[in-house]
Amino acid sequence: MKIRKARTEDVSSIVAMLADDELGKQRENYQLPIPDTYLRAFEHIKADKNQELMVVESEDGSVIGTLQLSFIPYLTYRGGIRAQIEAVRIHKAHRGEGLGVKMFQWAIERAKEKKAHVLQLTTDKKRPKAIAFYQKLGFAATHEGMKLHF
Fold first, then answer.
1. Would residue 147 count as lying in a domain?
2. Is residue 121 part of a domain?
3. Which residues, other chains included, contact 34 with Cβ-Cβ below 8 Å and sequence gap of 6+?
């Protein structure tokens, strides 16, 4: 298993994982070829020094996990950096193998390397297994998150 930055050829595998659950099916448009919107988004992410879209590559070179780590500079905390983790997914054939823990260990170390003072995430309240997993890793529900969808 290797964690590395995503490449253009990984986008279809990433989108397939994003779409492979009840919530993802409602918001993603997985098809081949991948819609250009995903490729354009990938190019924006790749060009932004504060974004790291990562994949987990298996021994045979398949993409079996993904996460996006964002670094948000801001004025509070004396001009601190906040790390945000999003879009965490493991291919369904590889769940329960400890990959999620390894991905989060990587993300925590990367956030520390970048001198972030906090690593935060949001998860849908409809994902109780994910919530329990994050709590087991030490994440605490300290704030009430709110969103305004357009």
1. no
2. yes
3. 11, 12, 15
